[in-house]
Amino acid sequence: MDTIVLSLKLDKLGGAERVVIQECNFLNENGHNVYLLTSKISSKVLEDYDLSSDVKVICLNGDSIIRHSLHIRSILRDIQPDFVNIHYKEAEFYLAQLGFSEKPKIYIQVHGSPFWFKNNSNLAPHLKKEEVNTILKEKHMEFQKNIPKSPSVHLLKVYLHEFFKEKAYKSANIVFATTPQVKHEIKALYGIDSKVIYEGISNSWINQKPIKINLTDHEYSILTVSRLDERKRIDILINAMKEVDIDAELIIVGKGEDKDRLKKIVKKQNLEKKVRFEGYIPDEKLPNYYASADLFATTGWISYGLTPLEAYLMNTKVLISEDVGAKYVLDGLNGVKVIKNKENISDKIEELLVTKVENFDTHKIPRWNQYCNKKFKKVI
């Protein structure tokens, strides 16, 4: 079966990027002839997430919707795929396949709706919808205070993009959402139903035998792992450390554009002895970090989030905010606390650090094969 996986840019390490590559590998292992299409690519991403050499990678020409659509159309004509699996680029694909008499089976995966991208102009065409405004006020105002609304050429392009994106959703065989929240948002924005399947952790990753390492000279270690950008809200964890009275150190793993701002906060709060920036750690070494930490914490604004699931599978206690989509999997499990955004986080950190957990409910964490078998059962 000839299959196209149409992807977001693969130039940064991240959860959605990892899912795209692992899906390519799964389809390849199940007999698909896989073509991965993306507009930007980094060899580091492909190497770190171990893309199979059998997957054919095609970088799309240009940087506009029209040029991408034309290139995709040419590829569709040449390959004539049986199946197309889309991660973003929905509008481009819809335009590319217009007029074709025979069309492939189409799946669309929505990692995060337009609500989950800061000050996203793609929300502008939907602001007259009552439910969209309700969702904004209840869940997303912290990062959606300045949505562009003034008439402009850019906004005209946005309206057209959202129009064709909705057409793409309605013409797909099925649309998948990462969580019930994202499912609700897709319905409010585009008027379509979607199916929730929770992304999981691969068995090969789970079966690694982590080596306990000495993460800190302090009595307790708190670990967070993510790309360093504003939406991850690592500043909340840093500021909380000022109020943590027991001997603990926050270890921040990851890199990104927010690093300098976060370091300034640490310096301003005189927290150099309680917060450490560890930088980037390769995937194969992360189990050692997860297993060695006393607590994993993330207070981000994240549509899903694989890292807290990974940490929990290493029998590490987890603290997450209510804005982390992985709460739908983790809430109620032994050794997990889901906190409201205005709760006193330092108290919850102290409480979890000193709590002994004998039995972790690791069997309730979704596995990668479970996710793929559910999603692709009709095409494998």
Automatic annotation (TrEMBL):
Q: Which UniProt keywords apply?
A: Transferase
CDD domains in alphabetical order:
GT4_PimA-like
Q: Which domain of life is it from?
A: Archaea
Q: Which InterPro entries match?
A: Glyco_trans_1 (IPR001296), Glyco_trans_4-like_N (IPR028098)
Any one Gene Ontology molecular-function term assigned to this protein's record:
glycosyltransferase activity
Boundaries of every Glycosyltransferase subfamily 4-like N-terminal domain copy: 14-201
Does the UniProt entry include the keyword Nucleotide-binding? Answer: no
Domain named Glycosyl transferase family: which ranges?
A: 212-353
Q: Does the keyword Disulfide bond apply?
A: no
Q: What is this protein called?
A: Glycosyltransferase, AglL family
